[in-house]
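Forum: Protein Structure Q&A
Topic: Joint prediction for protein chains with partners

I've read a bunch of threads here and the consensus seems to be that you should model interacting components together rather than docking separate models afterwards. I'd like to see that in practice. Below is the full input, 739 residues plus whatever partners are listed. Could one of the regulars post the assembled result?
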Amino acid sequence: MVFSSIEFIFVFMPIFLCIYYLTPERFRNVCLLLGSLLFYGIGSAEKPEYILFFMASLMLNYLFGILIDKSHGKLWFPLGVATNVLYLVVCKYFLRVLPIGISFYTFQAISYLCDVHRKKCRAESSFLHYGVYLSMFPQLVAGPIVQFRDICHQIHKRTYNFHSILNGLRVFILGLGSKVILANRVGGLWSQLTAIGYESISTPLAWLGLFAYSFQIYFDFLGYSLMAIGLGSMLGFDLPVNFDNPYLSTSMTEFWRRWHITLGSWFREYVYIPLGGNQKGKLITYRNLFVVWLLTGIWHGASYNFVLWGLLLFVVITVERAGLKQFLDRYRILGHLYMLFLIPLSWAVFANTDWNQLQLFFGRLFGADNMVGYGFQGDFVKYGQEYGVYLLLCLLFVVKLPQKIWAKLQDTGLGQIVLVGIFAGSVYFLYKGINNPFLYYQF
Amino acid sequence: MKKRDLLFAKWFLSCFVLCAFILGVRYVKDYLENMDKTVFAKSTEQVYSSPEEGKQINVIEKQPETQSSAEPSEEAPIKQSEQSTEEQESQAQDTVSKEQEDAPKEETGRQEFFANALFIGDSRTVGLMEYGNIENATFFASSGMSVFSLNKKTVTVPGEGKLSFEEILERKQYDTIYLMLGINELGYRFERVEAQYNEILEQIKGAQGEAKIYLCANLHVTKEQSEKDCIFNNKNINRVNQMIEASADNERTYYLDVNVLFDDEEGNLSTDYSSDSFHVLGRYYTNWVDWIRQQD
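Posted by a regular:
Agreed with the consensus. Here's the joint model:
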C-alpha cells in the first residue's frame, strides 16, 4: 500500500488513527504493531510469503539482540550481522525477490545489533517494542532509516496532542502534494520517453526528459519523506529529517548530506567510521570512501548500472575532496552550474538498468548519430508545451523561496485554506489517475 | 489550542468527508453499472523512495542482450536475431543506410499513397502520425480517444485549426479511412461499446460515400500486462477486435489486424517492440505504415 493512494488516505489511515487514538496508552504499541503488520500484509497481498520473511527477520533480530547483550557479543554479533547481510543479498541479488521495505528494515536491524554490541543502548527486552521499531508503518516502506537509540525512548513513552497531530497532518499533506501534484505529473514525460524509445527522440527532448526525471525523483522522495514524518508525528513520533533542499548543493559531497540523510548517516556510522573514516591517512580514506560508495550503489538496486552509479559518485566525491569542493564552495555560482549538469547526468545512469539503453540514452544526450527510424520533428515543442508548466513549477519548489513564503503563511488562515486545497487537488489527481492502469497515461 | 488549528481541523474534516462521499458514490455507481474500473487500483509509482518498488517507470524489463533488427519484409513479421552489440549497431546502420538509398523512391510512393487518407484513432494513431512518416494524410487522433469521445473532441489540423469529427468528415472526400479505436473503451459494458462503434461506422459511411474504410484491430498488450490486469488484457481486446471484424462487410469496409506484425508466439504484444506494454516503440511505426500499405 502506498501512502499516496485512495485506499490509504480514505480507508486505512482514518480507521487506524481512530483506533489508535481511542486505545489506552499502555496498549498503543500493540495497536501500532498490529496495524503495521496489517499494512504490510495488505501491501504484500500478492506475495503473502513476504510477511513471513519479515516476521522471521523480526524474531531473529530480537533474539540476536538479547544474545549479544547477555554474552558480550563475541559470537552473536558477527553472526547476527552476517545473517542480515546474507538475507538482504540473497533476496535482492540472487533470488531477485523484493519483500517490501527489505532494504530499510534490514539496515535498521543491523544498526540495532551494532548499537547493542557497542553498548550504545541496551537490547530491547520487549518483543513488542522491538517489533514496533522495525515495523512501524510510517518508515517501513521508504525510510527514514531510524537508528534504534534515537527512537527507543519514544517507543516506550510518547505524547501527542491535538496540535501536534494537526501539525503532522499538515506535513503529510505537503508531502502528498509534492508526490501527486508535482512528481507524478512531471514523471509522465519520462515515461513517455521510454515508451517511444530513446532511439526515436531528439536531443533537446532527451535533456527535457532527463530534467523531468530529476524533478520526479526529487519530489517523489521529498513527498515520501514528508509523509513519513507527518504520519510519525500523528502517532507521537519524532522521525528524523531525511531531505534538505538537496538541489541547492554546490558539490556532490554536499548533495549527499542533504539527500537521503539517514542513509548517509547509516553508512558513516556503521561502515565508514568503523573502517577508520578519514583518520588513517589518505590512502585508507580513499579506500573507505570507495567501499561506502560501492555499497551505496549496490543498496539502491540489483543491476550493474547502480554499481556504476555508485562508483561514479565515488570518483566525483574523491575529486571534490582533493580540492574541487573548496573551489566550488567559494564560487557558488559555478558550483550550482556544475551541479545543474552533474545531478541529471548521474540520474541518467541511475535510471537505466540496461547497458545498451544507457549507452543509447547518453548518445541521444550528446547528439550522437544513433537515431533509428523516422524522428518526430516537433517532439520537443509538443512535450515542452504539455509539461512546461509542471517543469517550471518544479523548478520553483526546488529553491527555498516557497519555503520562506510558507513559513510566514503557515500560521495564517490563508495557509490553512492552501493546505486543504493541496489535499483536495491531490485527491483529485489520484482519482483521475486511478482508472488508468498506466498512471496518467491514457491510450 | 490555537485558533488556526481549529480552523484547519474544521476545514480539513469537511473536505475529507466531502471527498470520501464523492468517491464512495462513484465507487458504488461504477460497481452497479458493471464497470470493472474501480476507485482502488494498483498503484505503480514510487520512483526513488523504495528501491524495491522503485524503477517502476520502466515497468517492462527490457531484454538486455538481444534486440530485433527491424528489417521491413513482405509478408513475414519482423524477425528477432541474436547478435552482439557491435554487429547489431553496424547492422542497424546498414539497415538505415539501405533504407535511405531506397528512400527517395519509397518516399514519394508512400506519401502519394496516403495523400488522401484519413486516420482516426487513439494514441497509437498519434504514434503513426508522429513517427510513421506520412506527411500528407489527415489525422483525427488523440490520446484517450474512444468511440464515446469521438464526437466530443476537436483536433488541430495543421493549417485549418481545431476541427470536430463531423467537420473532419465534411471537409473533403477521402480515398481511404483507417479507424482504430477500442482500447479506451475496455471496462465499459460491451454491448454499449458495440452499439456505439457501429453508430460511428454509420456516421463515417454516411459522410464518406466513396471511401474505402479499414476497420483496424486494436493492438495487443504485452503478456505481463495482460496477465496482471483484469480490464486491459488481450482477452478483452480480442473480444472487441472480433466485434470489429464482424462489422466489416468486405465490400466497403475491411478488417485489418496489425497484430500479426508485432505479436509474439502466444498472441501478446512482443516485448521486443514495446517498452510500456501498450505502444510500439517509435521506430516501428514506419514498419506499421509499410505493412498497411502492403495490405491494400
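The beta strands of chain B are 117-121, 138-141, 154-157, 161-164, 176-180, 212-216, 253-256.
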